Structures are given as structure tokens and as C-alpha cells.
Amino acid sequence: MVRNLVSGILGVAALCVGLVFTVNAAEQTVGTTLENLQAAFNGESNAKARYEAFAAKAEAEGYKSVASLYRATSKSEGIHATKHAEMIKKAGAEPKATIEKADVKSTKENLEASIKGETYEKESMYPAFIKKAESDKNEGAARTFKGAMAAEVEHAKLYAQALKEIDSWKEAGKEFLICQVCGFTSMDKNLKQCPVCSAPRSKFDVVK
User: Fold this and answer.
1) Has residue 70 got a pLDDT over 50?
2) 126: number of CA atoms within 13 Å, CB side?
3) Helices (H), the chain
4) Cα separation of 144 and 67, whole Å?
5) Angle at 94 between CA 184 and CA 144, to 5 degrees
6) I want to staple 95 with a disulfide (CB 3.0 to 4.6 A). Which of 84, 85, 137, 184 is the partner?
7) pLDDT, the chain, mean
8) 139 confidence band (pLDDT: 50, 70, 90)
């Protein structure tokens, strides 16, 4: 039983790190809420590093606004990792992540992979983790999972837009707002407060 449980959790982590997105919500491997937090922490930590690498590639290929988008989403994923880590420590454990080397391809391919990754997280991984946390009555874990999922929804939209308009994203100038509290990411310059956590505009970072 212990072996099966460990295998299941390693499977979740592998999905987060390796960009394997064939699992649907009904098949999502779920452990305890603490194990799910660890898997999410590992996944978000890797996403942060991966998007930093994708930003460098986009910059090298001349897609300056795509590079800015990746720098913004990397910052967002770092916030998610921090939130998950806080819940892990609250449960009396230590956050652990194994950072894998990013599989960097062309910017177009990186955007396609990023869309798949964010779609997997928002449609499969986080909904399953939220359901488990809520069944455990762990409001803190459910809240951090929901905050991350809301940001992943926006990340997927932004990546899809960048991919569709990729030629026009070569020029610099696009700005991205990142909520320092929950990691919500947007291009809406008119935001007065975070639509996810209600943080005021003063709590947003701007990445250009």
C-alpha cells in the first residue's frame, strides 16, 4: 500500500515536471492533501524555472513581448510555489522540489507546450487537489490551490494569444500585471484590484 501511494505521488510530480498532459480529471492521481501540496510545490517550482528558460529563448529569437510574458508568468509561478510551501510548513513538513532541466525548443513550440501545461493544471490537477482539500476541510490548502488554478487559466489565455499573434509579439512594449499576493496575471491596465484575492492595485508588480 505504501509503495503504491509513493508511486502515485511520484507520478503526479512527474506530470508537473515533464509536461505530460494526457491525464484527465477523472484519472487524476490524488494523494493526501499534504502530498498534493508537495506535488504542486514541485510543479510550480519547475514551472518557474522552465518559464525563465523560455523567456531567455524568446529573447534570443527576437520575441521581446513573449519574453516579457514568460518573465511575468515565472514570477507568478514562484508566488504559487511560495503559497504551497507555506501550507506545507503549516502541516509540519518541509517543501521539497526536484528542479529538472527545461526542455527548451523554439518559442512557438515552447508556447504550445506551455498551453498544454497550463490546461492540464487548470482542468485536471488543481480541480482534483481542490476537491481533496475540501473533503479534508483544509481551507488553507484549498485556497492556495484555487488561487494557483485561477492564474493558470489566465496564463493559458495569454500563451494562446501570444501564439496566435506571434509575429506582432516580436516588438517590446506589452505589459503584464502580477498580483504579489496570489499570482494572478493580466494585461488589463485598468485593474483596480485582484479579481481572485481582492488585493489592491498597489499589490501588483508590472513586467514589461
Assistant:
1) yes
2) 25
3) 2-18, 33-60, 64-90, 107-120, 126-135, 139-164
4) 27
5) 25
6) 85
7) 90
8) very high
Q: What would the mean pLDDT of 179-207 be, rounded to a whole number?
A: 96
Locate 6 and state its grid cell.
509513493
Superfamily of domain 2-18+28-167: Ferritin, core subunit, four-helix bundle (1.20.1260.10)
200's grid cell: 489592491
Cell 506551455, located at residue = 114
C-alpha cell at 128: 482534483
Cβ(87)–Cβ(39) below 8 Å: no
Closest CA to 6 of 41, 44, 35, 46: 35
**What residue spans define the domains of the chain?**
2-18+28-167
Judge whether 46 and 100 are in contact, CB under 8 Å: yes
pTM: 0.86
Beta-bridge partner residues of 193: 200
Convert the pLDDT of each residue in 115-132 to its tens digit: 999 999 999 999 999 999
| Amino acid 28: pLDDT | 56
